[in-house]
Fold:
Amino acid sequence: MKVRLGYVAMSRTLDMITPSHTITYTNYLKEEQKEEKLDYLINCNLDSLEQILRYNIKNNIHFYRLTSKLIPLVTHKDVSFDYITPYINKYELIGVLLKKYDIRMDTHPDQFTVLNSTNKEVLENTNRILEYHYRILKAFKIDIPIIILHVGSSVFGKKKAIERFIYNFRQLPKYIQECIVLENDDKVYQVEDVLYICRILNIPMVLDYHHYVCNHNNDLDEYLKDILGTWNNIRPKIHFSSPKSNNKKDFRSHHDYIDVDSFITFIEILKKYNIDVDIMIEAKAKDEALFRLVRQLKYKTDYYFIDDTTFIV
DNA sequence: CGCTGTCAAGACGAA
DNA sequence: TTCGTCTTGACAGCG
Structure:
């Protein structure tokens, strides 16, 4: 089993570089040269992204999550501009880097994306957000674009909320449906709920191990085979993080780093299935947490590292 | 210069 | 029905 590790959005090492420069709507309205301001921010963000990817290449990081704030105000309903054509060279250059150096990059829209919302406006926003993520992934010419979503709200109960999710999913354009992957969450939708939806819609499922620990009734082992099976011939993705603290209040929050022993425990469960996976390290210390985990794994296990972030079990 | 409150946006539970 | 909290990084504004 081959495991590749990844991190989210920003590098601790490149701490002066962010691909998420932004402007608030209020300040945008005050701005005299609106187009120039947006253009400046977009160029900043795309250049930062390129630098981060070059850093990933140097460090053999093959798995990375794009920030959802790459284009400022892009999904605001009262702001409209072409964020693809003027920057097509930059998108294509980044796309070439991804392909040439085998970096898997996906997106995970944030909490405002609620496909099963009962509020019409929220659903409209959600459609806009999904369209944006799709267009960005396409601009990078990513072969298998993946947008990771949560099921969303539980208004009127889980059963009705799941029905709404399925109904609304089927209203989406086919090309967006084909990108969506569902993740279990830490409060409402457990592994079995998400698996149920994924089976009906024939879409893959991302297992979030920390969310599973926060919110489960049954043993993970009962579901792992089915979860991995939802990916067909695509390499499955898994999210991994550790609780910020063991007290109830902070348990669900992410720790700066990864608890190596629980990571090893998880790998030992996973290795029975002997399938190659990509594991996204969701820790506040970002790539620093990834590299610390690798050092600890090298010390504590006999996993064979074929590069800085990839190992064989 | 550094700290703090605010931000376009949702959902939920407590008061 | 309204408010506080969750969560998060960027940034404006203030001292």
Remarks:
- Chain A has one domain: 2-312.
- The first strand of chain A starts at residue 2 and ends at 8.
